[in-house]
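Technical annex B. To support the medicinal chemistry partners, we prepared a structural model of the target in complex with pyridoxal-5'-phosphate, based solely on the information shown next.
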Amino acid sequence: MPATNGDRGVLNFYAGPTALPWPVIERMREDIADFHGTRMGIMEISHRAPEIEGLLADTAARVRRLLGLTADWEVLFLQGGGSLQFSMIPLNFSAPGEPVDYVDTGYWARRSIAEPQRMGRDVAVVASTAASSYRRVPPVSSIRPRPAARYLHLVTNNTVEGTQFRELPRTGVPLIADMSSDLMTDAFDASACDMAYAHAQKNIGIAGVTIVIVRRSMLDAIAAEARELPAILDYRTHALHHSNYHTPPTFAIYVTWLMLGWIEEEFGGLAVLGERNRRKAATLYDFLDATSFYRCLVEQDSRSVTNVTFALPSAELHRQFLEDADKAGLIGLAGHRSAGGCRASLFNGVTQEMVDRLVDFMGAFEYRNRSTACSRLASATDITGTSSPTTRPRAARSASPRTT
Ligand SMILES: Cc1ncc(COP(=O)(O)O)c(C=O)c1O
């Protein structure tokens, strides 16, 4: 496999959509013109044609194999991104006034919490790391949902803040996990949860499809309570029609099929892919820990394998860093607009070679700019302009464009 996504002169660290593995792109090139000898491009084939029905079934089979899902799980391919799941979950699994519990670990967790609140559910935030500026996730033992809660929702990897759970809580309340930025990046123990979902554009394809895995018992509970739902927002509709109730995003599902095939063929499964992803992250974290120029924003035991957040010593150096990175072809390193700082997203399409080159670039930038940083630190003025002789500078807010 090429070291750097086809050596196109760009190293893509966007937070999603983001880099795809080069073999996946090469395969797409072929199938855009002629899919499996049909003399029709993959985007031109009806969703009712056997090729696409077969593709849907095979993509679901790949998900099942990689995640080790037993027959009591449904695998669905839905539209509306991670965000629609924020609404579908309370709609399907609770009624107005019923208790639903959430863990607040940052930007996307808060977005997930806003939906049931809007719908008049009895929402409890049972654990939050807001007080520590989301620099860590809460200890799993501190997450205690109400026994009557219809479900407990959490975000396993916080794309914006760069934090990640190492394990999932087992509380007796059905667990629903937003895994948009870490599903299919490492081995996964499905027994810990009752539903998990991930949009594809980070680790498993392109924007347009969201993978949902859900236990059949969760769907049976909707039926038992005779909930009135618009058909298209009802998980049971999509399960019944094998994700082909209405025209599915065929091209996006096709790319997910390719990505999952690539994971199986290249790594033989998620465990080896997980080792590779952890090695990539360790390369960057080890570099950050060894320098006082850059500062990692996240506490050691909560650090994300897929999103590494860090700050530079001053707003000026932050701007310069992004400008120089851009010129050198390192793209997508600005932090999320709500968090500032920098972020390198090391999703499945990012290679070890790309991370090595990022670290080389960061080392060279530090070497060129260390004296600027020292004089700035000596004047004890942080990037917010506040004099602070004893503390290190806070995360910079970038003036350049950021990813979502
Ligand atoms: C963890 C997480 N959940 C949900 C979302 C929202 O996903 P979408 O933009 O597909 O609605 C994002 C977006 O990046 C995310 O990182």
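Notes passed to the chemistry partners:
The longest strand covers residues 122-128.
The CA atoms of residues 7 and 22 lie 9 Å apart.
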